[in-house]
Amino acid sequence: MKLICPSCGAVAGADAWANDAIARELMRDLTSLPAPVPKVVLGYLSLFRPGRRALSWKRAARLTRELAALVAAGHVQVQGKVARPATAAMWAAGMEQMTDRRDALTLPLKNHNYLRQVVWQLADDADRRNEAMTRQREIAPPRHREPDDGLLPLERKMLERGMKIPGLREVPDAKQS
Questions:
Q1: pLDDT at 154
Q2: d(CA 63, CA 40)
């Protein structure tokens, strides 16, 4: 049985892929990436394919290890800009954006620098939204809070109605709450 990789175009039998140490290493690295990155990484790796040739297992493995390190860092840094927190979902979204815009890119890609820029923009937008929500919470009027008398809202309502709560030794004044 011959298998053809839809991303890189490599053609080989299933046993050849299983017997190639670098191919096994690549598959292990791909499956160890945090979700949702594995779903989009093969399409992203196809952006590194040189012309009509297949992407070598060795290069694909190196690119995947570099990508794993970027995602694992938990942040994204672009030269001259402040680092931003970046989730695996942001990295996956960045790779998806790049594969969707492959016609506008200069291929083959040489490194992950453009991906870092895309993810940094996504992370910056998320950071901006979080900051706006924090500011909104700070200026919003305080909500009514129940008194901290150790009672559950249901128990408080029971006391207001004059009901007794079994096991309650000291009955707080329900009118004060």
A1: 82
A2: 14
